[in-house]
Design brief:
The protein contains seven helices and no strands. The protein is an all-alpha fold.
């Protein structure tokens, strides 16, 4: 079985949009962020969707390459690290993003705005790094053909 490159590229295009949306709001002070509910919702949705792009692509890689099946979605990146595809610390950080995504989705009524703002300010590069990993994986697949 081969990687579905078209599907991965589609998700990477969406990931680019979410990264751009997140970056657009990084210049806000916490006070501005705290007072703008529309921006808060946009950031929550962009983090949720960007994380899902990364987990979708990673799940596909795990499936195609016949790697260990994750018990939970947050394990996806840890499996990729275990098999040498990702750095362990980076995989742990991505795993934390999955936990944060779950909080956004399932405990939406109790969003910690300081935490959300912290993720906005510090963790966008994790998505950019994932984009690079996914593109390198596609390139390796295409050059092996």
């Amino acid at each position: 079985m081969k990687l579905n490159v078209a599907s991965i590229k589609t998700r990477l295009q969406k990931l680019e949009q979410y990264i751009a949306e997140l970056k657009k709001h990084q210049a806000l002070s916490f006070e501005q962020f705290e007072q703008n509910f529309t921006v808060q919702l946009a950031i929550e949705r962009a983090f949720q969707a960007a994380t899902e792009c990364c987990t979708d692509i990673s799940s596909h890689i795990i499936s195609v390459y016949g790697l260990e099946r994750p018990e939970e979605q947050r394990d996806i990146f840890l499996i990729l690290a275990k098999m040498g595809y990702l750095d362990g610390e980076y995989a742990r950080q991505m795993s934390e993003l999955v936990s944060f995504r779950n909080r956004i989705v399932h405990i939406y009524w109790d969003m910690d705005l300081r935490r959300l703002y912290h993720y906005l300010q510090k963790d966008v590069p994790l998505f950019e790094r994932f984009r690079t990993f996914a593109l390198q994986t596609i390139e390796a697949e295409e050059s092996a053909e």
